[in-house]
Design goal:
329 residues; alpha/beta; D-Maltodextrin-Binding Protein, domain 2; 2 domains; 5-stranded mixed sheet; 16 helices; globular; SsuA/THI5-like domain-containing protein; signal
C-alpha cells in the first residue's frame, strides 16, 4: 500500500512538473533571412545577447537567399517569419493570395547598398555613370528599385544613359564585378569595404543616404500564423525592440565582436567599420514601427521603377499593433 501511495504521489508530482513546463516553456520560431548581411546586425544582436531567450523564444535562423525564395518558403510554411524587403508583401498580395504576408516589425530604414566604382573617383558625380557598364541587381528587388530611383533623381536614366546588366544572380554579383568589364556596381557591407581594402573597388556614394527613409527590410508573417500566435509575435517584437535600443547605445567594435560568428571570414575591424557606416547613416531602425510615410515612399520607389502592381493601402499589409504595444509599455 505504501508503494502504491508513493507511486501515486510521484505521478502527481510529475504531472504537475510537466504541466508547469508546458505553460512556461520555450516557443520555437523559424526565421528565414533573405541574405546574410551586416545590415541585419540588430537581429543577430537579439539572438547573441539573449533578448529572444529572455522572452522564452528559441530562434532557428536560416538564410533563404533571395526575395522570391524567402517568400515561397514563408507561404509554404517552411518558416514562420521572413526577414525580407517589404515590397515582397505587395507582390504576394497582388497575386490574390488568400493568406498573404503581413509586415509587423521593421529592421532597417534605409537602403543598405553603396555605389562601388572599379577605379578611384575622388571627384565623383552621378553624371560619371553615363555610358558606363553598370552591374545591376535583380529586377523588382529593393536594391535595384532604389538604385533606379536615385539615378533618376540625379537626372540619369538607368535604362538609357548607362549600360545596365541585370543578368547576374544576387550571390554572384561581387565576383562578377571583380572579374568582369564593369565600372560600377551596388554592393552591401561588408563586401563593399572588402573590395575597397583589396583595391578591387572604391565606394563613391551611398544609396541609403540618397534615397531617404524607407521600410527596406522587416519581419513579416502570414496572417494565419499571426492570428494563432499573437503572444509569440508580441514577444518577438519586444525582443527585437530591446536589441534595437541596445544597438543604438553600443559602439561599433563591440557590435562587431558580437556578430562576428555570423561572418567568420570577415576581419573584425572591417566588420566594425561596416557597422559604423550603417549607424552613421541611420540605417538601423530605432524601433520596430513601420509608419505610413515610409510605406508611401516605398510605393513611390516601386512605381517609378514600374514595379508597383497595385496601390496597396498601408492598413492592408502593415500591422502596427505589436510595435506600438512594445514601444508604449
Amino acid at each position: 500500500m505504501r508503494k502504491i501511495k508513493g507511486f501515486i504521489l510521484l505521478s502527481i508530482g510529475l504531472l504537475i512538473f510537466l504541466s508547469a513546463c508546458g505553460t512556461g516553456g520555450t516557443s520555437k520560431i523559424s526565421i528565414g533571412e533573405v541574405t546574410r548581411s551586416v545590415f541585419y546586425t540588430p537581429m543577430y544582436v537579439a539572438v547573441e545577447e539573449g533578448f529572444f531567450e529572455e522572452e522564452g523564444l528559441e530562434i532557428d535562423l536560416q538564410t533563404t537567399w533571395g526575395g522570391d525564395t524567402t517568400m515561397t518558403t514563408l507561404l509554404s510554411d517552411g518558416i514562420d517569419i521572413a526577414l525580407v524587403g517589404a515590397e515582397t508583401s505587395i507582390y504576394v498580395y497582388a497575386q490574390d493570395s488568400k493568406d498573404y504576408a503581413i509586415n509587423f516589425a521593421q529592421l532597417t530604414q534605409t537602403d543598405g547598398t553603396f555605389l562601388v566604382a572599379k577605379e578611384e573617383k575622388p571627384d565623383f558625380t552621378w553624371e560619371d555613370l553615363r555610358g558606363e557598364n553598370f552591374l545591376g541587381q535583380r529586377v523588382g528587388g529593393m536594391p535595384q528599385m532604389v538604385g533606379e530611383y536615385v539615378l533618376k533623381k540625379h537626372g540619369v536614366d538607368p535604362h538609357a544613359d548607362v549600360n545596365l546588366d541585370q543578368s547576374v544572380d544576387f550571390a554572384n554579383i561581387p565576383s562578377a564585378f571583380a572579374s568582369g568589364d564593369y565600372e560600377y556596381v551596388q554592393l552591401f557591407e561588408p563586401t563593399a569595404s572588402v573590395f575597397e581594402r583589396e583595391g578591387t573597388g572604391h565606394i563613391v556614394a551611398s544609396f541609403g543616404e540618397e534615397s531617404g527613409t524607407v521600410p527596406y527590410t522587416g519581419f513579416m508573417a502570414k496572417q494565419s500564423y499571426m492570428d494563432k500566435n499573437e503572444e509569440t509575435v508580441l514577444k518577438f517584437t519586444k525582443a527585437l525592440y530591446k536589441a534595437q535600443a541596445w544597438v543604438q547605445e553600443t559602439d561599433a567594435m563591440t557590435l562587431a565582436e558580437i556578430v562576428s560568428p555570423y561572418f567568420e571570414d570577415t576581419d573584425i575591424e572591417l566588420l566594425a567599420s561596416s557597422i559604423e557606416r550603417y549607424k552613421n547613416q541611420d540605417s538601423f531602425a530605432t524601433d520596430p514601427l513601420l509608419d505610413k510615410e515610409e510605406w508611401e515612399q516605398l510605393k513611390t520607389i516601386m512605381d517609378e521603377a514600374g514595379e508597383l502592381p497595385e496601390d496597396v493601402p498601408y492598413e492592408e499589409l502593415v500591422n502596427t499593433e505589436f510595435a506600438e504595444k512594445v514601444i508604449n509599455d
